[in-house]
Specification:
It is a single chain. The protein is mostly helical. Helix content is 69%, strand content 0%. The protein is globular, with a radius of gyration of 16 Å.
Length: 177
Amino acid sequence: MPHIALPSDEPGIIGLFRFRPETAQPLNQLAEVLLRGDSTLSRGERELIAAYVSSLNSCRFCFSSHAAFAAAQLPEGMTLVEQVRADPDGAPIPAKMKALLGIAAAVQQSGQEVSDKHVEAARAEGATDVEIHDTVLIAAAFCMFNRYVDGLATVAPDDPAGYAEMAKVIVAEGYGH
């Protein structure tokens, strides 16, 4: 049960966006740029970063939704998402993604946890400054989104099918549509 009265029973951040549409617009714009805008990282890879950070934060709604969004855009689907969630170092992803997930995990702990070693490891695997920047910003943004969703005790459905349906809309239309 959410901590505040929401105008709909829509789950997670969706219900919060209905409550305060004036805050929804800039947050959706940020998600659109970070997760769907021009990048050398695929949309699936960026959604994977968002899902991974949400998992580290134990945010069930954000993990479930962004895991579905990543799975819909990665050839290996949910199997890969779950492998990354369980063991990013052992998951069958490129070394550059492993290094970027290491940065994301450090950000999830604290921005000050990101070390020169993290950045050097990502660069050694071919990560660009823009990819490093965007990884930090995705991780930081999802820490905020996760705390927003969980801090107001929003509803998080258990059925994966609902998240898969959301994924169809997000993949086709983007955030805020």
